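step=encode ok
step=design start
structure_in=
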C-alpha cells in the first residue's frame, strides 16, 4: 500500500471510530438521564408535539448508526446515515437560533456545555469529516468508474442532506400547528419571563386582589369584608381603611366581595342580593338592591355589569347583563354556558373583563374551554385551553338528610385562577402536562393565550415562597401580582419581545 493510501485509510478509520464513539456516548448519555432528556425534548419550541416518539427514536438511531459503522460491509451506509442525522441536527439548531421563541437545551454529557453557536460549528465540522471520508472512499475507484461513482455519490449526498433538512422543517411546522391547535397537552415553557421583585407577607391567607389602578393595587379580605388594603405598585408602601356603607344596618351579608374598577369602589353580595358603589377616594358607598340573585359580578362600564345567576326555570347557571339605566332591570342569556353534566357545577368558571379589547371572558373551571364575548353577549367565540379535558370530570356528593350537593375530591380542576390584560389571557393550572417534573419547589404553572388569535402561545413558571398554592392573580401591562398563601408578590416582565410566537 502506498503512503498516500495508508494516510487515507488512517484518516477514514479514525473518522469512523470517532463517530462510533460519539453516537454510543450520545445515546447512552440520553438513556442514563432519560427523564431529563424527555422533559427537555418535550419542552422544545420546535418538536415538542413529537417528543413521545423522538425520545426513543433519537438514541435508537444513534445506536444503529454506531453498529453500521462498526461492520465493514455496512460502513458506507453508516456514514450516509450519520451525514443525514448530523444534517437533521444542524437544521434543528439553525431553526432554534433563528425562529424559536426561546433557546432551550436538550443535549446530554459534554455537549451540554456548548452554546448553540458552538454546537452549530461542531456539527458543521462533523459534516465536513463525513464528506471527507466519503470522498476518499470514492477516489479508490478507477478513473472511468470514478466519475460515475462520484456523480452517484454527490446525488446521494445531496438527496440525503435535503431529505433530512426537509424532514426537520416539516416536523417543526406540523409541531407548531399541533402545539397551537391540536396539542396533546404538551406545554411550551419560556424561562425567566418574569422576575420576582417584591414579596410582602400579609400575615393571613384570606386576602384577594380587588383591583389595580394606575398607581395602586387593592386587596379585599374575606374575613374582614369591609376592609380595603392598598399598596403602591412596588409594594413598598401600604395602608388599610374601612369602607363606609350607607343604609346597610338591615342587611345581613353572607358572601360579600369588594372590587375596584378605575375610580369606582364596589361591594356586592349576590346572596342578599345587593350592590354598593361609590367613589374609591372617599371609601363611601351607597346600596342598590338588585332584582336578582347572582353568584359572580363583573363591571363592564359605568353602572353596567355582567353576572352569573341561577335561571328560575331550569335552576342552571347562566350569564346575564344588568344596567342601572335599563328600565327592564336585567336579562339572562341562556345557552351561552353549555351544560354537560348538571348545568350547575359543570359550567362553573371565572368571569373577567379585558378593558383593552373590550371583551368579556369566561373560563370554565372543569373543562378546557373559554369564551370571548362582546359586552352585549351577542358575539361568542369558543376557544380551547391546552388541557385535554373537554368534558367536566366531576365527583358530586349528596349530603344525606340535607339534600345538599358538593364536589368530591376526585373532581378534576382544569383552571384555578385567571387574569387578563392587553391581548393576553393568563390561566393558572395545577395539572401537569407531558414531560413535566413534579412541582416541589414553590412554583406555579401559568398558561398564556392570545385572545386575538384564540391560540395557546406558551407557559411559564411563577416562583413564590414556600409550597403555598397560587390563590389569586392579576395582570397589568408588564406587572404580574399574585397572592400565594399569606404572600403578595410582584413580578416584572423581562422578555418583552420574545414571549409571543407568531
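sequence_out=
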Amino acid at each position: 500500500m502506498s503512503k498516500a493510501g495508508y494516510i487515507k485509510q488512517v484518516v477514514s478509520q479514525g473518522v469512523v471510530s470517532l463517530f462510533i464513539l460519539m453516537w454510543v456516548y450520545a445515546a447512552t448519555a440520553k438513556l442514563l438521564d432519560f427523564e431529563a432528556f424527555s422533559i427537555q425534548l418535550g419542552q422544545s419550541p420546535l418538536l415538542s408535539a413529537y417528543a413521545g416518539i423522538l425520545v426513543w427514536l433519537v438514541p435508537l438511531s444513534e445506536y444503529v448508526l454506531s453498529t453500521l459503522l462498526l461492520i465493514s460491509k455496512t460502513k458506507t451506509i453508516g456514514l450516509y446515515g450519520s451525514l443525514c442525522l448530523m444534517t437533521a441536527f444542524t437544521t434543528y439548531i439553525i431553526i432554534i437560533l433563528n425562529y424559536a421563541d426561546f433557546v432551550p437545551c436538550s443535549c446530554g454529557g459534554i455537549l451540554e456545555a456548548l452554546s448553540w453557536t458552538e454546537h452549530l460549528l461542531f456539527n458543521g465540522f462533523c459534516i465536513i469529516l463525513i464528506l471527507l471520508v466519503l470522498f476518499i472512499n470514492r477516489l479508490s475507484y478507477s478513473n472511468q468508474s470514478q466519475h460515475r461513482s462520484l456523480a452517484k455519490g454527490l446525488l446521494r449526498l445531496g438527496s440525503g442532506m435535503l431529505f433530512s433538512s426537509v424532514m426537520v422543517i416539516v416536523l417543526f411546522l406540523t409541531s407548531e400547528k399541533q402545539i397551537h391547535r391540536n396539542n396533546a397537552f404538551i406545554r411550551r415553557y419560556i424561562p425567566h419571563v418574569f422576575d420576582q421583585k417584591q414579596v410582602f407577607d400579609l400575615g393571613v391567607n384570606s386576602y384577594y386582589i380587588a383591583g389595580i389602578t394606575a398607581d395602586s393595587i387593592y386587596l379585599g379580605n374575606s374575613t374582614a369584608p369591609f376592609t380595603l388594603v392598598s399598596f403602591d405598585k412596588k409594594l413598598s408602601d401600604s395602608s388599610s381603611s374601612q369602607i363606609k356603607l350607607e343604609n346597610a344596618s338591615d342587611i345581613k351579608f353572607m358572601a360579600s366581595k369588594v372590587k375596584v374598577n378605575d375610580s369606582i369602589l364596589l361591594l356586592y353580595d349576590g346572596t342578599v342580593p345587593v350592590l354598593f358603589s361609590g367613589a374609591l377616594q372617599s371609601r363611601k358607598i351607597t346600596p342598590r338592591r338588585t332584582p336578582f340573585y347572582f353568584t359572580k359580578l363583573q363591571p363592564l362600564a359605568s353602572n353596567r355589569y355582567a353576572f352569573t345567576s341561577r335561571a328560575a326555570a331550569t335552576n342552571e347557571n347562566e350569564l346575564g347583563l344588568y344596567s342601572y339605566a335599563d328600565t327592564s332591570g336585567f336579562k339572562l342569556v341562556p345557552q351561552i354556558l353549555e351544560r354537560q353534566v348538571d348545568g350547575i357545577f359543570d359550567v362553573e368558571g371565572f368571569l373577567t373583563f379585558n378593558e383593552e379589547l373590550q371583551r368579556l371572558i369566561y373560563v370554565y373551571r372543569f373543562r378546557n374551554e373559554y369564551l370571548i364575548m362582546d359586552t352585549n353577549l351577542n358575539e361568542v367565540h369558543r376557544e380551547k385551553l391546552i388541557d385535554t379535558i373537554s368534558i367536566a370530570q366531576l365527583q358530586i356528593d349528596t349530603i344525606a338528610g340535607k339534600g345538599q350537593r358538593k364536589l368530591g375530591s376526585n373532581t378534576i380542576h382544569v383552571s384555578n385562577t385567571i387574569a387578563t390584560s392587553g391581548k393576553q389571557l393568563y390561566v393558572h393550572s395545577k395539572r401537569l402536562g407531558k414531560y413535566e417534573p413534579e412541582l416541589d419547589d414553590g412554583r406555579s404553572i401559568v398558561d398564556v393565550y392570545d385572545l386575538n388569535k384564540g391560540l395557546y402561545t406558551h407557559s411559564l413558571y411563577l416562583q413564590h415562597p414556600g409550597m403555598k398554592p397560587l390563590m389569586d392573580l392579576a395582570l397589568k401591562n408588564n406587572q404580574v401580582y399574585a397572592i400565594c398563601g399569606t404572600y403578595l408578590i410582584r413580578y416584572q416582565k423581562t422578555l418583552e419581545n420574545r414571549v409571543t410566537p407568531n
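step=design ok
step=annotate ok -> Residues 3-182 form one domain.
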